[in-house]
Amino acid sequence: MFIAIGFMVLGGVAGFLLRKREFKHITKLIMGFIFLLLFLLGVEVGSNPQIIAGFASIGLEALVITLAAVLGSALAALLLWRHIRNSKKGVHEK
Amino acid sequence: MRSSVVIVSFFALGVLLGYLGVIPLSLIDNDMSFYALCCLMFFVGVSLGNDSNTLKRFASLNPRLYLLPVATVVGTLLGCAIVSLLLPGRSVFDTMAIGSGFGYYSLSSIFITEYKGAELGTIALLSNIIREIITLLLAPFFVKFFGKLAPISVGGATTMDTTLPIILRFSGKEFAVVSVFHGFVLDLSVPVLVTIFCSL
Model-level pTM? Predict the structure, then answer.
């Protein structure tokens, strides 16, 4: 986990040193890696019989709990977002 | 929304090919996804460092954004506590322990399996994988309806690595610092909170 962060810091330094150059295709490259990683996550889920069997029997329960957790945190984030934007210094002053 | 559809397709294709056994498992065992993640993080870093506006944005970051991990924990636990009323077989503390994984499925499912048994551990594994997938697939939806902080809260403990690129893409690069900070705090809170709710 920290190794991955280390790579980002390394990339940040490299990008900063080369900031006079423009990297036009970096967004496409990033999306490519996101696609690859999601594909690999899918392969991992699909090839694990325990996870597939779990999806059939108790997957619904997991989904219900997750939706509640996700909705709760999204609402909390919305409250904080509104609080920040209503205070005098917002992150997006335009 | 087009990229979300493409993302779903890639994931679904992976599930199908993995299920059919077409893809050699050595692909996963060889930590290929970890190397891909490192490459991804490197290029995310390059795009951050290369953008001269990013550093200026960091300086103007509102200190209140550092309250976001607290909002995530409170919101998640409240949601889990309420939903336990709909699940007669599960206690409030069961669902709160599962929610305390915050998407960190490997660690939380190991802890919960240890304390509460394999069934709840498997639910925790599925639930927290779903949380990560929801973040990756629905980030634009959360930005639209719940504001730019919502994908970070929903991402939970994963916002310092796996879901960081998607958050930066849909919330904006200026959220890099708060996203990494948020993921770091939640990573540390997972073992603590899971242990607390499993022992109650």
Answer: 0.73
